[in-house]
UniProtKB/TrEMBL annotation:
Entry's transmembrane regions: 31-51, 63-87, 93-112
Subcellular location as annotated: Cytoplasmic vesicle, Secretory vesicle, Synaptic vesicle membrane; Early endosome membrane
PANTHER family tied to this protein: TRANSMEMBRANE PROTEIN 163
Name of the protein in question: Putative integral membrane protein
GO cellular component: cytoplasmic vesicle; membrane
InterPro entries found in the cross-reference section: Cation_efflux_TMD_sf (IPR027469), Tmem163 (IPR026765)
Keyword Transferase: no
Family: Belongs to the TMEM163 family.
């Protein structure tokens, strides 16, 4: 349960900072990353509800909900990236975005690993699905960071949107696995 509290705290910080940086830099990939952070907050909250006597929900329902959130995120990322391409949105440099995605790239794999281990010990499918979302957050952080760094090095205007679009297939595969209660296949 304390792992979920740590996740919630970090994800609230990550979400706030990433969305602010996205607004500041007009970055589609940062907006997608911040949206993922919001999904993570909801996912961690759903898992926490399992341990709250007043709001108990089944592990299966919680796991399915977490997987559905990943599908929703894939759709959001796709729409945001395509809109950015169509409107030729050019992101500005974002040192804040680079810092928060770098931090997520360090922290999220550790959280995902700990969640997977606890889920394996307890058989908690919702926590296993939530570990997938933590791992997915790390992938999005890596893609976003790469896009921000390439854009910062005077890359083409579309590199930010391309970084966001590269995340969509990963999100769809992991959403399917999470809905079925499987762990992350790629970490």
């Amino acid at each position: 349960m304390s792992l979920q509290v740590v996740t919630l705290a970090w994800m609230l910080i990550e979400c706030s900072v990433a969305l602010f940086a996205a607004w500041q830099a007009r970055s589609v990939s940062l907006l997608a990353f911040g949206s993922d952070s919001l999904v993570e907050v909801i996912s961690a909250g759903v898992v926490l509800l399992q341990f709250t006597p007043r709001f108990r929900i089944s592990q299966l329902r919680a796991a399915q909900f977490c997987g559905s959130l990943l599908y929703a995120l894939a759709g959001v990322v796709f729409v945001i990236a395509i809109a950015g391409l169509l409107h030729r949105v050019e992101a500005d440099t974002s040192k804040l975005g680079i810092a928060i995605t770098g931090g997520a790239l360090l922290l999220m794999p550790l959280l995902a690993q700990k969640k997977r281990a606890i889920a394996a010990q307890t058989g908690n499918k919702a926590l296993r699905a939530d570990s997938v979302q933590s791992a997915t957050c790390a992938y999005l952080a890596a893609l976003t960071l790469a896009g921000l760094l390439l854009r910062d090095a005077s890359g083409p205007h579309w590199i930010d949107q391309a970084a966001a679009l590269l995340a969509v297939p990963i999100l769809i595969v992991e959403a399917r696995r999470a809905r079925r209660g499987y762990g992350c296949s790629c970490c």
